[in-house]
């Protein structure tokens, strides 16, 4: 349908402007558009090709792409070819090959033989869809039914307008109301002379309705104001009806005996629901504003008053309901507060108190357990709502009252007295309709604009529909979902919510592109309905018509599309009996084998906006067509794509096609930026800077790999050092983390592991083993990098980055490393040596020691500079003098910490603290020590995060050996601080008696296992 709508627009534009749009005149000043004739020349012929200047909001909202041909130009379609797109079939042959070319440039690995067009242009796929729909219709519990039902409808297109047929309003459904008929007491009005009537702004009440032209148009018909309500059970409490004083209302002929007052929008919907006679026809007898209806007397069905009045209300919308609102102040907070306002400010609202005061306080109609028999009054008073302007509080009150009334309310009056509201709500509606006092009225829940540009309505029409929501089918779909991997809880929640409310779905339409219903070819299958199990068709497409999208030539199986009967498809996909067919048995078996090999579907990826329709239909249809063992295994939904943190829009210039991105950045840098754009269902953000930086990153790494590969012969070999083992373990750990991220389809996290973490590991290894040309380290002896680990690193980097940057990885693998096979055929990196967790913890410890020393010395230097403290400066070694770093370490934790931790552990019960920590500390005599409470607070956080293992503070590595193995590393890292020697001293040996200074004793006292202290001397 979207293609057909665009093609139809182009057809009209070609007629208007010529095949090359040569009669179109570009605007010179202001926005462009056909001239709008002035009112005084309304009958005068105008030139639709004339361009005039527009003003105000029209200018600010105009994108400059008013016409379809302009959009085509902006997409790069040559002007002389655009007119060809007036034929919708041309779209099918123009864009898919270009999309395939772009995806190939991006480096996608796709079996293009399995590509196909999903309309009846492709006779092979058409037969598949016909089989699918026959299977659904002939199901033991038929999934496709026929009947009269309400559906969103495009009057211009003359057919239902489903989600993908809409320019706006996707996901908007049908809202059903009960239309209440409030009879205008015309006899009372006409019997009262104008001069004797009450007045509204000096105009007699009902003057317009009793005018000669209206009476002549009515010809004795009964006149009703019609209101739309969601709560027919409250009609016993009607005290009046409300209108918007400035809204436009019409008088519409319903039949030979009735006319209704409502808004034009609602009348249009009613006409397509057969309420006015012939579908879509409207006979308008008059028009007025809401102010003309104020004070008009009415007879309201089920009301406890013989007569009520029409009153004004703020906030009545022409876009919701009929513009007429029934008033039940006992059970509607909005109605109650409005009646209060009218009493307080009758002059301001131009109402007579006799139209309001006799009806207040309202009469009770529903008893509720929490808010009595006047729920609206009680809640308004409880929330202290003062006027109609308290919109937020009124919305809260409405939700409270409506839920309480529906779920817990009991009817107090009428023939259903004593029964629950939930039970009698439909019964009261049926009763009112049977008494010709009400009718069913439907409209879209919100505005829906079709791709043809018209505002959609709700129509009541015979049509074929999918019986989604049917209880047994829904339970089967829920069972399928429960076994599926959705990768994110948000996705699962959205599916579950959608399955709860999704109901019948029209699956047929009158025109567009697609396949026709096999049993009723006057209808086409709606585009969201024929795209639910096409994944199964991929498995055999290459055999049927491999190499062409439209099935114009048979594939390797040499099968004719006419031979693809339902029995053939049953044999291939449902393990049915061998069919009587011209297709050779070997070919049928090959197709069945292909299907059995690939199904069930491992993964379906799609946008999060399609969970509400396509992806839920996908689940429903798979469960109806295939046995449980062939149900889909996983769905991965994703958000939309932002460009530089903003929504992509051609009108603002913030727009980039895939082809443009590849031309600008190259395929791998584009893929790098896409991977970095974000994970999860949030909108991803493609940043120019990330793509630009990726070019430099990948190029620099390529150069390093090339240079390093040339120097391999001179690198160290043999047994592994401590630094080698750290690097080896880090690579193994990172590979595992990358694998986990890829498996979870978290590509930003995968990129972090595969590129950034690996780069950081390599840089740390290089820093520990290779000279960095620092002047203070010229005479140092370095161990150098190990040849095997360097080769291993380049291999791992190429392999784990291959899903993101395949071309770059191929270059590293084949050109730099000179591997005999392509990286695409290489296996995921594995390692025989498991991750050495202790050595990784040790490496983290050493780096942390260096970091803390640097940070502390930097902070001290800033403090001295700020204070200009000469005493502090004098106490420190001379800035340029060689220094010795004394590192103090401890074999055990302080006794008071162990005692405090033992006391804390006694309060850990069933995986949580019992709240008696202070009592336990007091019992151990520790509360007087000021060091204890901060320590306990810190340990509680750690334990609550890690669980019981947090009580175990033992190190996973040998602290002394780790420090001594890295003495050179620590000294080199601190060379800028003139450290030339590092001494390691156990805390217990530090005392003044042993010849240490007071500063040494003080520093050593703070050392604990895993957190050494230091002093520079």
| Terminal Cα span | 81 Å
For the residues shown, what is the average pLDDT? 90
**Which structural class matches the secondary elements?**
alpha+beta
In total, the number of strands is 33
| Uncertain ranges | 29-63
Radius of gyration (CA) equals 39 Å
Q: State the assembly state of the protein chains.
A: single chain
Q: What is the beta-strand fraction?
A: 5-15%
- Count of alpha/pi helices: 35
Taking the sheet with the most strands, its summary is: 10 strands, mixed
Helix content: 40-55%
Overall geometry: globular
Question: Mind sketching the topology for me?
Answer:
Layout lengths: L1 H16 L39 H5 L6 H7 L4 H4 L5 H19 L16 H15 L6 E11 L4 E2 L5 E3 L5 E11 L1 H6 L7 E2 L2 E2 L7 H7 L3 E8 L10 E4 L4 E6 L4 E5 L1 H9 L11 E6 L7 E3 L8 E5 L11 E4 L5 H12 L1 H4 L16 E2 L7 H8 L8 H18 L1 E2 L9 H14 L3 E7 L4 E2 L6 E10 L4 H13 L5 H13 L3 E2 L1 E2 L6 E2 L2 E6 L9 H11 L20 H8 L11 H14 L5 E4 L6 H12 L9 E4 L2 E3 L2 E2 L10 H8 L1 H10 L7 E3 L1 H23 L11 H22 L3 H23 L17 H15 L4 H11 L20 H31 L2 H6 L7 E7 L5 H11 L2 E2 L2 E2 L3 H7 L8 H15 L12 H7 L1 H7 L5 E8 L11 H8 L7 E4 L1
Parallel strand pairs: 7-10, 8-13, 24-25, 26-28, 29-32
Antiparallel strand pairs: 1-2, 1-19, 3-18, 4-7, 4-12, 4-17, 5-6, 8-14, 9-10, 9-11, 12-13, 15-16, 19-20, 21-23, 22-23, 26-27, 29-33, 30-31
Please explain how this structure is put together.
- This protein is α+β, with helices and mostly antiparallel strands.
- 41% of the residues lie in helices and 14% in strands.
- The chain contains 35 helices and 33 strands.
- Strands 4, 7, 8, 9, 10, 11, 12, 13, 14 and 17 form a ten-stranded mixed β-sheet that branches. It has a four-stranded antiparallel β-sheet with strand order 2-1-19-20.
- Helix 25 packs antiparallel against helix 26.
- Mean pLDDT is 90; it is low at 29-63.
């Amino acid at each position: 349908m979207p293609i057909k709508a665009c093609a139809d627009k182009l057809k009209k534009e070609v007629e208007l402007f010529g095949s090359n749009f040569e009669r179109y005149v570009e605007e010179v000043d202001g926005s462009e558009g056909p001239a709008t004739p002035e009112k005084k020349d309304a009958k005068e012929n105008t030139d639709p090709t004339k361009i005039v200047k527009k003003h105000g909001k029209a200018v600010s909202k105009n994108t400059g792409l008013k016409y379809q041909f302009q959009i085509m130009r902006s997409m790069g379609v040559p002007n002389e070819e655009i007119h060809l797109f007036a034929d919708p079939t041309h779209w099918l042959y123009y864009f898919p090959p270009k999309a395939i070319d772009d995806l190939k440039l991006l480096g996608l690995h796709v079996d293009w033989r399995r590509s196909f067009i999903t309309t009846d242009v492709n006779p092979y796929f058409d037969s598949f869809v016909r089989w699918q729909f026959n299977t659904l219709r002939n199901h033991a519990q038929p999934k496709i039914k026929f009947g009269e039902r309400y559906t969103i409808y495009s009057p211009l297109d003359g057919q239902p307008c489903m989600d993908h047929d809409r320019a706006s309003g996707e996901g908007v459904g049908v809202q059903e109301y009960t239309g209440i008929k409030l009879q205008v007491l015309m006899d009372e009005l006409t019997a009262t002379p104008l001069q004797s009537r009450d007045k509204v702004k000096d105009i007699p009440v009902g003057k317009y309705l009793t005018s000669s032209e209206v009476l002549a148009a009515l010809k004795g018909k009964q006149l009703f104001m019609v209101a739309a309500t969601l709560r027919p059970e409250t009609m016993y409490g009607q005290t009046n009806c409300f209108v918007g004083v400035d809204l436009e209302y019409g008088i519409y002929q319903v039949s030979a005996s009735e006319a209704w007052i409502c808004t034009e929008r609602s009348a249009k919907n009613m006409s397509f629901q057969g309420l006015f006679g012939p579908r879509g026809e409207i006979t308008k007898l008059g028009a007025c504003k809401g102010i003309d209806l104020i004070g008009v007397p009415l007879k309201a069905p089920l009301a406890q008053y013989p007569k009520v009045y029409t009153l004004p209300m703020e906030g009545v919308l022409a876009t919701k309901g009929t513009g007429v609102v029934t008033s039940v102040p006992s059970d509607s907070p909005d109605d109650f507060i409005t009646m209060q306002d009218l009493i307080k400010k009758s002059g301001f609202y131009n109402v007579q108190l006799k139209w309001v005061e006799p009806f207040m306080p309202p009469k009770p109609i529903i008893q509720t357990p929490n808010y009595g028999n006047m729920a609206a009054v009680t809640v308004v008073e409880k929330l202290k709502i003062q006027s109609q302007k308290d919109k937020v509080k009124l919305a809260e009150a409405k939700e409270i009252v409506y839920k309480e009334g529906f779920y817990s309310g009991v009817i107090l009056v009428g023939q259903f007295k004593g029964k629950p509201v939930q039970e009698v709500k439909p019964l009261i509606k049926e009763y009112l309709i049977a008494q010709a006092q009400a009718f069913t009225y439907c409209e879209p829940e919100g505005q829906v604009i079709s791709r043809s540009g018209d505002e959609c309505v709700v129509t009541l029409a015979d049509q074929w529909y999918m019986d989604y929501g049917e209880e047994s089918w829904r339970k089967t779909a829920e069972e399928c979902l429960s076994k599926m991997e959705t990768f994110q809880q948000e996705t699962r929640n959205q599916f579950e919510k959608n399955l709860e409310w999704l109901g019948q779905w029209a699956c047929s339409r009158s025109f567009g592109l697609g396949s026709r219903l096999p049993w009723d070819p006057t209808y086409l299958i709606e585009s969201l309905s024929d795209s639910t199990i096409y994944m199964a068709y991929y498995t055999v497409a290459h055999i049927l018509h491999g190499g062409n999208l439209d099935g114009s030539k048979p594939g390797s199986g040499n099968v004719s599309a006419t031979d693809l009967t339902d029995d053939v498809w049953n044999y291939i996909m449902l393990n049915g009996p061998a069919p009587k067919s011209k297709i050779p048995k070997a070919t049928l078996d090959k197709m069945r084998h292909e299907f059995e090999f690939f199904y069930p579907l491992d993964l379906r990826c799609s946008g999060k906006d399609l969970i509400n329709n396509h992806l839920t239909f996908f689940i429903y249809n798979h469960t109806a067509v295939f046995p449980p063992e062939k149900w889909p295994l996983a769905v991965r939904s994703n958000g939309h794509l932002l460009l530089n943190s903003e929504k992509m829009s051609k009108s603002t210039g913030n727009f980039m096609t895939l082809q443009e991105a590849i031309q600008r950045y190259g395929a791998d840098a584009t893929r790098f930026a896409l991977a970095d754009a974000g994970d999860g269902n949030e909108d991803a953000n493609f940043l120019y800077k990330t793509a630009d930086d990726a070019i430099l990153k990948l190029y620099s790494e390529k150069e390093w790999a090339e240079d390093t590969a040339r120097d391999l012969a001179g690198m160290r070999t043999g047994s592994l050092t401590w630094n080698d083992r750290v690097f080896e373990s880090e690579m193994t750990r990172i590979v595992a983390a990358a694998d986990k991220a890829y498996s979870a389809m978290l590509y930003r996290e995968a990129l972090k592991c595969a590129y950034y973490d690996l780069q950081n590991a390599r840089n740390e290894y290089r820093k520990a083993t290779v000279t960095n040309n620092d002047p203070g380290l010229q005479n140092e002896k370095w161990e150098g990098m190990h040849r095997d680990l360097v080769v291993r690193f380049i291999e791992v980097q190429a392999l784990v980055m291959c899903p993101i940057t395949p071309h770059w990885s191929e270059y590293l693998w084949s050109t730099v490393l000179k591997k005999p096979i392509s990286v695409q055929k290489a296996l995921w990196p594995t390692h025989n040596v498991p991750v050495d967790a202790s050595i990784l913890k040790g490496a983290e410890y050493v780096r942390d020691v260096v970091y803390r020393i640097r940070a502390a010395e930097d902070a001290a230097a800033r403090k001295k500079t700020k204070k200009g403290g000469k005493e502090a400066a004098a106490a420190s070694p001379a800035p340029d003098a060689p220094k010795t770093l004394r590192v103090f370490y401890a074999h055990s934790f302080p006794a008071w910490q162990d005692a405090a931790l033992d006391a804390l552990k006694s309060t850990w019960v069933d995986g949580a603290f019992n709240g008696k920590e202070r009592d336990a500390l007091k019992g151990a005599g520790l509360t007087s020590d000021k060091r204890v409470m901060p320590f306990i607070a810190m340990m509680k956080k750690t334990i609550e995060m890690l669980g019981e293992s947090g009580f175990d503070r033992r190190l996973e590595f040998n602290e002394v050996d780790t420090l001594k193995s890295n003495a050179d590393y620590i000294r080199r890292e601190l060379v800028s601080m003139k450290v030339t020697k590092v001494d390691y001293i156990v805390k217990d040996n530090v005392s003044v008696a042993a010849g240490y200074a007071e500063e040494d004793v003080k520093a050593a006292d703070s050392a604990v296992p895993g957190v050494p202290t230091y002093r520079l001397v």
